[in-house]
Amino acid sequence: MGNNQSIIDVIFAHLSEPFGKSFFETAASILATAIVLFFTLVLIPIQQFVNRYSPSLLRYFRRDWLTISLMVVLLVSFFYHLILWFSRPIYLYAYISALLLALSFVLIVVMIFRVIKMMNPSEYLFPKIQEDCNKILKEVKPEELQNPIDKLSQLEDQMKQVFIAGEKVDPNERKWSVSDVVVKQLIEKMLPLKSIMMNLITTADYELFTKAIGTFKEISISYFVARKEFKSSQDSFLIYLCETLNDLVKTAEGSGNVYYTRSLFTAIREISLSTLSVDVIGSQSGYNYLATPLARIMKERAVFGVVKRDMDRAYDPTLNYGHIGCALAYNGFGHSAVEIAEGLKEIATYCHVFKDTVTLVPVRNSLATIFYNLLRYPKLYTNYDHLYRQMIEIYEPCLTSRPMQEPH
Three-state DSSP class for 167? Predict the structure, then answer.
């Protein structure tokens, strides 16, 4: 016991001995250089990244906990050495100083790898945006309107949609529409993705573009899953989706790379199909007012591609447009499926005029599948037989070799 106590006394005596100030002066200088290097490693790449894509992305870097922690450790180490420079140091302080100095250099190396990861949007930024959007979507829940003005506005909206769809709805329906506040927050988080995708199309970075559109698609699908039981067909997020995807498609068409538009059309199709499970007003009458606006983007681009005699750009939207029509017919949305069939007929009309036999293939296949699904999976609602008469009128011209009436 006595030997152990004597060893402890020797250690404490050694740690309490005075130590030269020159070491701390050198250490403080090294740490000052390390702090400058740290800020150079962090700020310059982040500034270039933000300037390239969107200033709103700065908030994601500003709240990165690891970067903040590393910066705090470096600053604490620097001020620790600075204080010891003006005090009477001992060996204990020197050992702590050496430990902090070594730790600071390790942290700088860690920060180098962290910055490399932060500059890759698919590894750092996209998951952060999706995580923020998922947190917002957790707030999508029924709300009890307290303001009489809001109640009156909802009632008027219900009356309009009931008149159009021909369905009844409870005037006190709490699951009517998603809160505008939630939609506004979600759109605000997704806006940087549009800026990034526009930039990636311009710089021809297709690999990163596919990951960006994949994140955009997953967030959009998550939204429709979250609003599955809300009845209103009027959706401000859907309007944002249509505008954003339409802008992206038009930009991608000018890139000269068909793979950009192909990825976009696939994303539009999958987002449209995710709306089929939403119990929106009109669903019981054969309508899906969420899928058709998104599908309309592809119909417009298909017609544009046929007119421009660009078969690659006409074929892809036509194929995906037809897939949506087939899914609508299969799931009992007969009227919306026939609306898609009408659009396919219009595309076929332009194909006959401009001698585009390639795009006619998915048109005919889709029309046949839509007609088959309507017959194979019938759903009874008011005036249901009108669908079959319409489909015969649409499909019959495609069975003959004579061209359809030319568009005006």
Answer: coil
Q: CA-CA distances (angstroms) from residue 110 to 67, 102, 114, 267? A: 10, 13, 6, 37
**Is residue 20 exposed (0-12), middle (13-18) or buried (19+ Cβ within 10 Å)?**
exposed
- Indicate if the pLDDT at residue 255 is higher than 80: yes
Q: Report which of 215, 399, 249 is spatially closest to residue 317, judged by C-alpha positions.
A: 249
Confidence class of residue 404 from pLDDT cuts 50, 70 and 90? very low
Q: Give me the pLDDT at residue 271, please.
A: 95
Beta-carbon contacts of residue 382 (< 8 Å; ≥ 6 apart): 166, 285
Asked if 104 and 80 count as a contact pair (C-beta separation under 8 A), the reply is no
C-alpha 355/C-alpha 376 separation (Å) is 33
Domain boundaries, the chain: 2-119, 127-399
Distances (CA, A) of 351 to 95, 210, 304, 308, 311: 81, 30, 11, 11, 10
Give the range among 16-25, 251-260, 283-292 with minimum mean pLDDT: 16-25
CA 350 to chain centre: 34
pLDDT at 277: 84
Contacts of 71 (CB under 8 A, 6+ apart): 38, 42
Reported for 379-385, long-range contacts at CB under 8 A and 24+ positions apart, including other chains, are 379/286, 379/332, 379/334, 381/284, 381/285, 381/286, 381/334, 382/166, 382/285, 384/286, 384/334
